[in-house]
Amino acid sequence: MSFLNGTSPLQPAAESDIEAGPPTLLSADLDEGNVSDPFDIARTKNASIERLRRWRQAALVLNASRRFRYTLDLKKEDEKKQILRKIRAHAQAIRAAYLFKAAGGGPSNEPIKPPPIPTAGEFAIGQEQLASISREHDTAALQQYGGVVGISNLLKTNLEKGVHGDDADLLKRRNAFGSNNYPRKKGRGFLMFMWDACKDLTLVILMVAAAASLALGIKSEGIKEGWYDGGSIAFAVILVIVVTAISDYKQSLQFRDLNEEKRNIHMEVIRGGRRVEISIYDIVVGDVIPLNIGNQVPADGILITGHSLAIDESSMTGESKIVHKDSKDPFLMSGCKVADGSGTMLVTGVGINTEWGLLMASISEDTGEETPLQVRLNGVATFIGIVGLSVAVIVLIVLLARYFSGHTKNSSRFPPFKAGKTKVGDAVDGAIKIVTVAVTIVVVAVPEGLPLAVTLTLAYSMRKMMADKALVRRLSACETMGSATTICSDKTGTLTMNQMTVVEAYAGGKKIDPPHELESYPMLRSLLIEGVAQNTSGSVYAPEGANDVEVSGSPTEKAILHWGIQIGMNFTAARSESSIIHVFPFNSEKKRGGVALQTANSDIHIHWKGAAEIVLACCTGYIDANDQLMGMDDEKMTFFKKAIEDMAADSLRCVAIAYRSYEKEKVPTNEELLADWSLPEDNLILLAIVGLKDPCRRGVKDAVLLCQKAGVKVKMVTGDNVKTAKAIAVECGILGSYADAMEPNIIEGKTFRGLSDAQRDEIADRISVMGRSSPNDKLLLVQSLRRKGHVVAVTGDGTNDAPALHEADIGLAMGIQGTEVAKESSDIIILDDNFASVVKVVRWGRSVYANIQKFIQFQLTVNVAALVINVVAAVSSGDVPLNAVQLLWVNLIMDTLGALALATEPPTDHLMDRSPVGRREPLITNIMWRNLLIQAMYQVSVLLVLNFRGRSILGLSHENYEHAIKVKNTLIFNAFVLCQIFNEFNARKPDEYNIFKGVTKNYLFMGIIGLTVVLQIVIVEFLGKFTSTVRLNWKQWLISVIIGIISWPLAVIGKLIPVPTTPINNVISKCPISRRKEPDESQ
To answer: Which residues pair with 345 in a beta bridge?
Structure first.
């Protein structure tokens, strides 16, 4: 029984997983599942290739190419790794040659070659020359062209303002140097899906049987009558193949569109002096691109300026070494990530002219990936398949034995086979018909569509989730989200609107109201303008002749730049008055960022900006109301601390701006020493503390309450001040009131970090808010929660969030503010950065699970009923009421059409009234067992009564025996199909009385039901020759409909029967037989 829940029966739980090694504090053992059971993989996110191979080998599969189409192609994965190794070896060889050449270093006797003469064209340098410099990291050649300035002149690019960016200019560049795209391998065509559907072993056997039956039929009865038996089976098989191929092809198109969306990264470039966001595919040679932590290098290029710029080149070289970039090693490779620092680059190679483009063009991206539910369903399908196969073999043996022993009677009541008298051809034809029925039972019994229904519902859900602002990167995450018990959410931009404005300011030792009135503080104002303009990752663009300015950057940077403009800052002029010596980019660990400047007077100023209480703690002075420098005494320190607390209590983000002067002699002059220079952060002079208002998003409180009602705990993890976090948490409904804001409900990251693992595990459940947290604190919280058995979803946007996103069961990256590193570590990207969209993902996740359960209930009912009816009839009478063609039609209804109808139900609010579904909970619940057994028993009882007493019940005793049997069998077939159609409505709502709720909104469901009914009428009334049916009169149709419609009130009565809360498989596993067997199994 436990096999029906996706696990092998009678197998003890393993202590730890072979692929995880000894238990560690990094991940919970509950993830890995039962090692001895190939179908028990609770988390496929980091499962080993060996583990994935094992469950494929254990599955009973009729059509491997179709069943495993959307799982990871293990063979292709190996090929991909080999190609990656080759290309990385090439990249390393070039790097080694470059280093060797650099190490040789001494003066060469060879004369310096002039730069090669470029080919005639729009630009004074050709693609081949650029590619040669970039790929070979040829510093000497770069110098011959005049360095990055010389290359920019040849490419007609201004290093500060970028390219012009008009359509004509971009077109010239694409024509000369190519576009930033690479040729993709063509997707599979419809005919390939047809071919895949034909590979089903049972369908192949049926086609062979149809051909043999066709040949024998034509030989014995002539072409006019003899082709019906074989032709009808062949037609039914072709119909199954075509419908299956259409369904699979449509699915593949959905996946293709989603994959294209995943690859379409958006980047900021500088064009015409302004920063604009464009698709990575629109980047051209000559573009100037700003790079910040977490960005992907979108093309090959040369560094223009960089501050502590460090690049992770592991995607190209295979080495996890961080490479620092400066004027000695200025070459940047496409596909690498910015690990630290910032800078700007000049694009010199795009698309297929880069190593990354060659790499992507040479490997076919395998988007396949198994999900835990898919693996479990393969276990269920294997178990049912083994039962069905056994039943089919029994039916085959019984029918053949009865046929050749003369106990089977035909429609004329005579045995069709008499030893020594029946022709060989007729005997073979009879045996073929029996084999055909047995094989068709296998077709019906082995639920090939069951694991594929997961892919179908996931493909449907992924497409719909795009409309709900969620881009699914990993299929399994969509499914796992339905089991989420905890969501650890960021504050800024997720719970709040990410639209910041400076609403309060403290400067000159007092509160400034309005916050931009600083005219009476000329020195303070001058230093503030200098710090705001230079210590920023944002920018200000002032179009000529226009009054409005365009400010770009993160919401915090934009708010402070807007405030700078209000106090009188001219961004361009302010930046030209001093030059940057060194930058310490904002760091989420240190919560601050700094810059060292050299002013026009050659003075050195060091400016810092960051979390108010942290920067304030470094200050030893401030500028007072008289614009004079004063020492920071205890009274003034208390005043500023209280100001921060008051602003935080009003849910404002507090940022302090400070500076200090520095001795010029102490500044490193060597480029390498400068790169490693730690900016002094002591003896700072406080310039200002500003409070930024970021209002809560509309609807976020309702979304949090909905989560809490659904049994999902929402925790806020933020880098902001604890008091700011508390105020926002109360406003959002995460904390019920300020009275709840006590440890451990609300905790500081530093405090949590200082606890032992056991102490963290103890309080992790109770934490609602974590303030002043670092990304590592978030990771520690995720690990503690997962050790406690929670299924954790985590939101993140920064590069340092990547470990937490990777460790979590579901990593949710922010689409607007998220860095490329964060997105690549995530499973789902929230496109609008809105918490309400996260809650929609939870609904969709639950919908996936619920839809699969609906389909399982529907399909198992058909399985049980069809098998029992045919077995009982075969054993008792030597004949089966449902023939091969009819069973193939039933298979089409329950497999492909049933999956389409039930697996595409949209989510309902009812899903959020339940608790999360545990990953170890059985797929087939007690409610489902009750529903399917009631329906199956009813169908089996009624149809077997009709099979054995149908002639008398239907008043056919006085009619011709052969015709009466055909009418009876037709009515059994018709009633059986109509039972499935009516039962499809029951399957929509397994635990609700109103099965029609929302049915008219699901056009696909209604369309499939309508199509099935129409085709059933056509089959019975007009295709009798093919399906061995006869036309039914209106009374017989009415009887069929009544038999089918009774399943509706029967389902309502069934739902009144209470079921035990303990799953059936748990009860069975506790029985004495199971306990006695367990020790043997474990030895």
So the answer is: 289, 303
* 74-98 per-position pLDDT tens digit: 666 676 677 667 666 766 666 666 6
Q: Is 624 annotated in the active site? A: no
Dist CA 773 CA 752 (whole Å)? 9
Q: How many residues does the chain have?
A: 1083
Q: Answer whether 355's CB lies under 8 Å from 91's CB.
A: yes
Q: Is the dihedral of CA 515, 521, 526, 530 positive or negative?
A: negative
3-class DSSP string for 575-599: HHCEEEEEEEEEECCCCEEEEEEEE
Please tell me the distance from the alpha carbon of residue 321 to that of residue 830, in angstroms, as a whole number. Answer: 31
Q: 3-state DSSP call for residue 304?
A: strand
Answer yes or no: are the C-beta atoms of 536 and 728 closer than 8 Å: no
Taking residue 50's Cβ as centre, other Cβ atoms within 10 Å add up to 10
Q: What type of residue sits at position 1055?
A: K
Q: Token digits for 742? A: 């006590």
Residue found by looking up tokens 């699915």 in the block: 251
456, 251 Cβ separation under 8 angstroms = yes
How many angstroms separate the CA atoms of 72 and 676, rounded? 44
pTM for this model (two decimals): 0.78
In whole angstroms, give the CA distance from residue 324 to residue 3.
Answer: 54
- Note the pLDDT tens digit of each residue in 488-500: 998 887 888 888 9
Return all residues near 830 (Cβ < 8 A) that are at least 6 apart: 469, 470, 494, 795, 812, 813, 814, 815, 837, 838, 841
Residue 1016 has pLDDT above 90, yes or no: yes
Asked whether 295 and 267 are in contact (CB, 8 A), the reply is yes
Do the Cβ atoms of 989 and 1052 come closer than 8 Å?
Answer: no
pLDDT beyond 60 at 1068: no
Catalytic residue among 340, 490, 720, 801, which?
Answer: 490
Write the Ramachandran bin of 351: left for phi over 0, alpha for psi from -120 to 50, otherwise beta: left
Q: What Cα–Cα distance (Å) separates residue 953 from each residue in 445, 942, 964, 968?
A: 30, 12, 11, 10
Would you say 640 and 686 are in contact if contact means Cβ atoms under 8 Å apart?
yes
- Report the 10 Å Cβ neighbour count for 254: 15
User: What residues have CB less than 8 Å from 955, skipping those under 6 apart?
Assistant: none
| 3-state DSSP assignment of residue 454 | helix
Q: Using one digit for the tens of pLDDT, what is the confidence trace for 552-585?
A: 888 899 999 999 999 989 998 999 999 998 888 8
> What does the pLDDT look like over 940-953, one tens digit per residue?
999 899 988 888 88
Instruction: Indicate whether 139 pLDDT > 50.
Output: yes
